[in-house]
Amino acid sequence: MAFTLWILSLILSSLTSSAFCATPRRPVDVPFGRNYVPTWAFDHIKSFNGGSEIQLLLDQYTGTGFQSKGSYLFGHFSMNIKMVPGDSAGTVTAFYLSSQNAEHDEIDFEFLGNRTGEPYILQTNVFTGGQGDREQRIFLWFDPTKAYHRYSVLWNMYQIVFFVDNIPIRVFKNSKNLGVKFPFNQPMKIYNSLWNADDWATRGGLEKTNWSKAPFIAGYKSFHIDGCEASVEAKFCATQGKRWWDQRQFRDLDAAQWRRIKWVRKKFTIYNYCTDRKRFPQVPPECKRDRDI
Predict the structure, then answer these.
(1) Is 106 one of the annotated active-site residues of the chain?
(2) Spatial CB neighbours of 142, under 8 Å, sequence gap ≥ 6
(3) In a domain, 18, yes or no
(4) Is residue 17, in this structure, part of any structural domain at all?
(5) Measuring CA to CA, how many Å separate 131 from each of 141, 178, 196, 232, 235?
(6) Distance in angstroms (rounded) separating the CA atoms of residues 251 and 173
(7) Residue of 106, 118, 207, 286 marked active site
(8) Could you tell me which residues come within 8 angstroms of residue 75 by beta carbon, excluding any fewer than 6 positions away?
(9) Which domain holds residue 283?
(10) DSSP-derived secondary structure for 100-164
Protein backbone atom coordinates (compact mmCIF):
# COMPACT_ATOMS: atom_id res chain seq x y z
CA MET A 1 0.00 0.00 0.00
CA ALA A 2 2.79 2.39 0.95
CA PHE A 3 4.63 1.56 -2.29
CA THR A 4 1.45 2.23 -4.31
CA LEU A 5 0.95 5.57 -2.61
CA TRP A 6 4.61 6.45 -3.24
CA ILE A 7 4.26 5.66 -6.97
CA LEU A 8 1.02 7.67 -7.14
CA SER A 9 2.75 10.57 -5.40
CA LEU A 10 5.58 10.50 -7.95
CA ILE A 11 3.11 10.48 -10.85
CA LEU A 12 1.10 13.39 -9.44
CA SER A 13 4.29 15.31 -8.69
CA SER A 14 5.49 14.77 -12.24
CA LEU A 15 2.19 15.88 -13.73
CA THR A 16 2.04 18.95 -11.52
CA SER A 17 5.61 19.93 -12.35
CA SER A 18 5.03 19.49 -16.09
CA ALA A 19 1.82 21.49 -15.99
CA PHE A 20 3.49 24.18 -13.89
CA CYS A 21 6.37 24.66 -16.33
CA ALA A 22 4.54 24.06 -19.58
CA THR A 23 3.54 26.85 -21.89
CA PRO A 24 -0.24 27.33 -21.62
CA ARG A 25 -2.19 26.77 -24.81
CA ARG A 26 -4.20 29.89 -24.10
CA PRO A 27 -4.51 32.44 -21.29
CA VAL A 28 -6.67 31.42 -18.35
CA ASP A 29 -9.43 34.02 -18.12
CA VAL A 30 -11.30 34.65 -14.87
CA PRO A 31 -14.17 37.00 -13.92
CA PHE A 32 -13.33 40.64 -13.27
CA GLY A 33 -13.85 40.50 -9.50
CA ARG A 34 -11.43 37.63 -8.98
CA ASN A 35 -8.31 39.74 -9.46
CA TYR A 36 -9.48 43.34 -10.00
CA VAL A 37 -11.26 46.17 -8.19
CA PRO A 38 -12.46 49.58 -9.44
CA THR A 39 -9.95 52.39 -8.89
CA TRP A 40 -12.14 55.49 -9.08
CA ALA A 41 -15.55 56.70 -10.33
CA PHE A 42 -17.27 53.38 -9.57
CA ASP A 43 -20.50 54.60 -11.18
CA HIS A 44 -18.69 54.85 -14.53
CA ILE A 45 -17.94 51.10 -14.60
CA LYS A 46 -20.64 48.76 -15.89
CA SER A 47 -20.54 44.97 -15.47
CA PHE A 48 -22.05 42.39 -17.84
CA ASN A 49 -22.32 38.63 -18.28
CA GLY A 50 -21.81 37.72 -14.66
CA GLY A 51 -18.73 39.89 -14.29
CA SER A 52 -16.89 38.42 -17.26
CA GLU A 53 -17.11 41.69 -19.20
CA ILE A 54 -17.08 45.33 -18.13
CA GLN A 55 -17.34 48.73 -19.76
CA LEU A 56 -15.53 51.90 -18.79
CA LEU A 57 -17.33 55.20 -19.42
CA LEU A 58 -15.82 58.65 -19.95
CA ASP A 59 -17.84 61.85 -19.92
CA GLN A 60 -17.13 65.55 -19.34
CA TYR A 61 -17.13 64.95 -15.57
CA THR A 62 -14.74 62.02 -15.18
CA GLY A 63 -13.11 58.96 -16.62
CA THR A 64 -12.63 55.76 -14.66
CA GLY A 65 -10.43 52.72 -14.23
CA PHE A 66 -9.66 49.53 -12.34
CA GLN A 67 -6.61 47.84 -10.89
CA SER A 68 -5.42 44.43 -9.79
CA LYS A 69 -5.82 43.45 -6.15
CA GLY A 70 -2.32 42.01 -6.08
CA SER A 71 1.14 43.20 -7.08
CA TYR A 72 3.31 41.05 -9.34
CA LEU A 73 7.01 40.63 -10.01
CA PHE A 74 7.33 39.08 -13.48
CA GLY A 75 4.71 37.14 -15.39
CA HIS A 76 2.32 37.13 -18.33
CA PHE A 77 -0.61 39.54 -18.30
CA SER A 78 -3.28 40.12 -20.94
CA MET A 79 -6.61 41.75 -21.56
CA ASN A 80 -9.14 41.72 -24.38
CA ILE A 81 -10.16 45.29 -25.17
CA LYS A 82 -12.57 46.91 -27.61
CA MET A 83 -11.75 50.58 -28.15
CA VAL A 84 -14.04 53.60 -28.12
CA PRO A 85 -15.75 53.71 -31.53
CA GLY A 86 -16.47 56.70 -33.75
CA ASP A 87 -15.07 60.11 -32.87
CA SER A 88 -12.74 59.29 -29.97
CA ALA A 89 -10.31 62.19 -30.40
CA GLY A 90 -8.71 63.24 -27.11
CA THR A 91 -9.42 59.97 -25.30
CA VAL A 92 -6.87 57.46 -24.07
CA THR A 93 -7.70 53.83 -23.35
CA ALA A 94 -4.92 52.27 -21.28
CA PHE A 95 -3.69 48.88 -20.09
CA TYR A 96 -0.47 49.03 -18.11
CA LEU A 97 1.64 47.76 -15.22
CA SER A 98 3.12 50.16 -12.68
CA SER A 99 4.95 50.03 -9.36
CA GLN A 100 3.96 52.29 -6.49
CA ASN A 101 7.29 53.93 -5.64
CA ALA A 102 8.55 57.40 -6.59
CA GLU A 103 11.21 56.01 -8.95
CA HIS A 104 8.64 53.74 -10.42
CA ASP A 105 8.77 51.10 -13.13
CA GLU A 106 5.99 50.98 -15.71
CA ILE A 107 5.00 49.03 -18.83
CA ASP A 108 2.40 50.84 -20.96
CA PHE A 109 -0.16 50.14 -23.64
CA GLU A 110 -1.92 53.43 -24.49
CA PHE A 111 -4.48 53.66 -27.29
CA LEU A 112 -4.85 57.20 -28.60
CA GLY A 113 -8.26 58.15 -29.92
CA ASN A 114 -8.96 59.62 -33.34
CA ARG A 115 -11.35 61.62 -35.43
CA THR A 116 -13.86 59.51 -37.32
CA GLY A 117 -12.22 57.74 -40.23
CA GLU A 118 -8.68 58.10 -38.93
CA PRO A 119 -6.78 55.09 -37.53
CA TYR A 120 -6.14 54.49 -33.84
CA ILE A 121 -2.55 54.86 -32.66
CA LEU A 122 -1.03 52.43 -30.19
CA GLN A 123 1.69 53.95 -28.03
CA THR A 124 3.93 51.76 -25.86
CA ASN A 125 6.40 52.95 -23.26
CA VAL A 126 8.71 51.52 -20.62
CA PHE A 127 9.71 53.33 -17.42
CA THR A 128 12.66 52.11 -15.35
CA GLY A 129 13.70 53.80 -12.13
CA GLY A 130 11.24 56.62 -12.79
CA GLN A 131 12.60 57.38 -16.26
CA GLY A 132 10.39 56.93 -19.33
CA ASP A 133 10.72 58.75 -22.67
CA ARG A 134 10.87 55.43 -24.50
CA GLU A 135 7.77 55.89 -26.62
CA GLN A 136 7.08 53.86 -29.72
CA ARG A 137 3.94 54.36 -31.81
CA ILE A 138 2.34 52.14 -34.42
CA PHE A 139 -0.84 51.90 -36.44
CA LEU A 140 -2.75 48.67 -35.94
CA TRP A 141 -3.50 46.38 -38.89
CA PHE A 142 -7.18 46.18 -37.93
CA ASP A 143 -9.93 48.42 -36.58
CA PRO A 144 -9.76 47.94 -32.77
CA THR A 145 -13.28 49.35 -32.31
CA LYS A 146 -15.05 46.59 -34.26
CA ALA A 147 -14.20 43.61 -32.05
CA TYR A 148 -12.19 42.56 -29.03
CA HIS A 149 -8.46 41.97 -29.49
CA ARG A 150 -5.96 40.62 -26.98
CA TYR A 151 -3.10 42.79 -25.72
CA SER A 152 -0.42 41.07 -23.66
CA VAL A 153 2.80 41.66 -21.76
CA LEU A 154 5.46 39.03 -21.09
CA TRP A 155 7.88 40.19 -18.38
CA ASN A 156 10.77 38.19 -16.99
CA MET A 157 14.38 38.85 -15.98
CA TYR A 158 15.50 38.87 -19.60
CA GLN A 159 12.97 40.86 -21.57
CA ILE A 160 9.65 42.66 -21.73
CA VAL A 161 7.59 41.79 -24.81
CA PHE A 162 4.43 43.56 -25.97
CA PHE A 163 1.97 41.43 -27.98
CA VAL A 164 -1.12 42.23 -30.02
CA ASP A 165 -3.15 39.07 -30.72
CA ASN A 166 0.00 37.05 -29.90
CA ILE A 167 2.06 38.99 -32.46
CA PRO A 168 5.08 40.69 -30.83
CA ILE A 169 5.15 44.40 -31.61
CA ARG A 170 7.97 45.47 -29.30
CA VAL A 171 10.71 43.98 -27.14
CA PHE A 172 12.67 45.72 -24.39
CA LYS A 173 15.67 43.61 -23.45
CA ASN A 174 17.45 43.58 -20.11
CA SER A 175 20.45 45.79 -20.95
CA LYS A 176 21.96 46.18 -17.50
CA ASN A 177 25.36 45.40 -19.03
CA LEU A 178 24.94 48.68 -20.95
CA GLY A 179 24.08 50.64 -17.81
CA VAL A 180 20.33 50.65 -18.45
CA LYS A 181 17.99 49.95 -15.56
CA PHE A 182 15.55 47.07 -15.95
CA PRO A 183 12.43 46.34 -13.85
CA PHE A 184 13.40 43.48 -11.55
CA ASN A 185 12.76 44.41 -7.92
CA GLN A 186 9.59 46.53 -7.80
CA PRO A 187 6.32 44.58 -7.96
CA MET A 188 3.69 46.14 -10.19
CA LYS A 189 -0.07 46.30 -10.15
CA ILE A 190 -2.07 46.02 -13.39
CA TYR A 191 -4.12 49.09 -14.26
CA ASN A 192 -6.77 49.81 -16.90
CA SER A 193 -8.32 53.19 -17.50
CA LEU A 194 -10.27 55.44 -19.86
CA TRP A 195 -9.52 59.14 -19.54
CA ASN A 196 -9.37 62.47 -21.31
CA ALA A 197 -5.97 63.65 -22.60
CA ASP A 198 -6.91 66.08 -25.32
CA ASP A 199 -3.92 68.26 -24.45
CA TRP A 200 -1.67 65.71 -26.24
CA ALA A 201 -3.39 62.48 -27.30
CA THR A 202 -4.64 63.31 -30.81
CA ARG A 203 -2.35 65.15 -33.22
CA GLY A 204 -0.35 66.52 -30.31
CA GLY A 205 -3.40 68.14 -28.75
CA LEU A 206 -4.73 69.85 -31.89
CA GLU A 207 -7.88 67.70 -31.87
CA LYS A 208 -9.98 68.25 -28.77
CA THR A 209 -12.53 65.90 -27.23
CA ASN A 210 -16.03 66.39 -28.63
CA TRP A 211 -18.14 66.06 -25.50
CA SER A 212 -21.35 65.96 -27.52
CA LYS A 213 -20.31 62.37 -28.35
CA ALA A 214 -20.08 61.37 -24.67
CA PRO A 215 -20.26 58.99 -22.98
CA PHE A 216 -17.25 57.33 -24.59
CA ILE A 217 -17.22 53.59 -23.91
CA ALA A 218 -14.42 51.01 -23.98
CA GLY A 219 -15.02 47.31 -23.35
CA TYR A 220 -12.81 44.90 -21.39
CA LYS A 221 -13.00 41.15 -20.91
CA SER A 222 -10.84 38.00 -20.61
CA PHE A 223 -9.06 39.13 -17.44
CA HIS A 224 -5.82 37.13 -17.37
CA ILE A 225 -3.02 37.26 -14.80
CA ASP A 226 -0.24 34.66 -14.53
CA GLY A 227 2.46 36.24 -12.41
CA CYS A 228 4.50 35.94 -9.26
CA GLU A 229 2.41 37.72 -6.65
CA ALA A 230 4.46 39.65 -4.11
CA SER A 231 4.14 42.36 -1.50
CA VAL A 232 4.88 45.93 -2.56
CA GLU A 233 8.06 45.81 -0.44
CA ALA A 234 9.37 42.62 -2.10
CA LYS A 235 12.75 42.95 -3.76
CA PHE A 236 12.97 39.53 -5.34
CA CYS A 237 10.67 36.81 -6.62
CA ALA A 238 12.32 33.40 -6.95
CA THR A 239 10.65 32.29 -10.17
CA GLN A 240 13.69 31.30 -12.24
CA GLY A 241 12.91 28.04 -13.97
CA LYS A 242 9.66 27.50 -12.08
CA ARG A 243 7.04 29.18 -14.27
CA TRP A 244 6.37 28.72 -17.98
CA TRP A 245 7.19 32.37 -18.77
CA ASP A 246 10.53 31.95 -17.00
CA GLN A 247 11.80 29.07 -19.11
CA ARG A 248 14.83 29.32 -21.37
CA GLN A 249 12.74 29.63 -24.55
CA PHE A 250 11.22 32.88 -23.24
CA ARG A 251 14.55 34.64 -22.71
CA ASP A 252 14.47 35.83 -26.32
CA LEU A 253 12.10 35.89 -29.27
CA ASP A 254 12.28 32.95 -31.61
CA ALA A 255 13.04 33.33 -35.34
CA ALA A 256 9.36 33.53 -36.33
CA GLN A 257 8.69 36.18 -33.70
CA TRP A 258 11.65 38.27 -34.87
CA ARG A 259 10.25 38.13 -38.40
CA ARG A 260 6.89 39.31 -37.07
CA ILE A 261 8.34 42.20 -35.11
CA LYS A 262 10.37 43.34 -38.12
CA TRP A 263 7.17 43.22 -40.18
CA VAL A 264 5.44 45.46 -37.63
CA ARG A 265 8.37 47.88 -37.59
CA LYS A 266 8.51 48.09 -41.37
CA LYS A 267 4.80 48.36 -42.10
CA PHE A 268 3.20 50.10 -39.12
CA THR A 269 5.74 52.12 -37.13
CA ILE A 270 4.97 55.82 -36.83
CA TYR A 271 7.52 56.81 -34.22
CA ASN A 272 10.45 55.16 -32.46
CA TYR A 273 12.41 57.06 -29.82
CA CYS A 274 15.48 55.02 -30.80
CA THR A 275 15.71 56.87 -34.13
CA ASP A 276 14.72 60.34 -32.88
CA ARG A 277 18.02 62.23 -33.04
CA LYS A 278 16.30 65.54 -32.22
CA ARG A 279 15.21 64.34 -28.80
CA PHE A 280 18.16 62.01 -28.32
CA PRO A 281 21.30 63.23 -30.12
CA GLN A 282 23.10 60.30 -28.54
CA VAL A 283 21.52 56.93 -29.28
CA PRO A 284 20.06 55.54 -26.02
CA PRO A 285 22.23 52.61 -24.91
CA GLU A 286 19.43 50.03 -25.08
CA CYS A 287 18.79 51.01 -28.70
CA LYS A 288 22.28 49.95 -29.71
CA ARG A 289 21.20 46.34 -29.78
CA ASP A 290 20.89 45.66 -33.50
CA ARG A 291 17.54 43.96 -33.24
CA ASP A 292 15.96 46.60 -31.06
CA ILE A 293 16.46 49.60 -33.40
Answers:
(1) yes
(2) 149
(3) no
(4) no
(5) 30, 16, 23, 19, 19
(6) 9
(7) 106
(8) 155, 225, 226, 227, 228, 243, 245
(9) 30-292
(10) SSSS--EEEEEEE---TTSPPEEEEEEEBTTB----EEEE-SS-TTTS-EEEEEEE-SSEEEEEE
Query: CA-CA distance, 112 to 199, in Å (whole number)?
Result: 12
The answer to the question of residue 85 being in a domain is: yes
Rounded distance between C-alpha atoms, residue 281 and residue 292, angstroms = 17
Instruction: Tell me which of 110, 118, 135, 286 is the catalytic residue.
Output: 110
Strands (E), the chain: 36-40, 45-48, 53-58, 64-68, 71-82, 91-98, 106-112, 121-127, 136-139, 149-155, 159-164, 167-173, 189-196, 216-230, 269-272
In a domain, 2, yes or no: no
What helix, strand, coil percent values describe the chain, rounded to 5? 25, 35, 40
What's the CATH number where 247 sits? 2.60.120.200
Domain count for the chain = 1
Residue 110 appears among annotated catalytic residues:
yes
Query: pLDDT (tens digit, 0 to 9) for every residue of the chain, 293 residues total?
Result: 444 433 334 333 333 333 344 456 678 999 999 999 999 999 999 999 999 999 999 999 999 999 999 999 999 999 999 999 999 999 999 999 999 888 999 999 999 999 988 899 999 999 999 999 999 999 999 999 999 999 999 999 999 999 999 999 999 999 999 999 999 989 999 999 999 999 999 989 999 999 999 999 999 999 999 999 987 666 667 766 788 998 999 999 999 999 999 999 999 999 999 999 999 999 999 998 755 44
Rg (C-alpha) for the chain, rounded Å, is 20
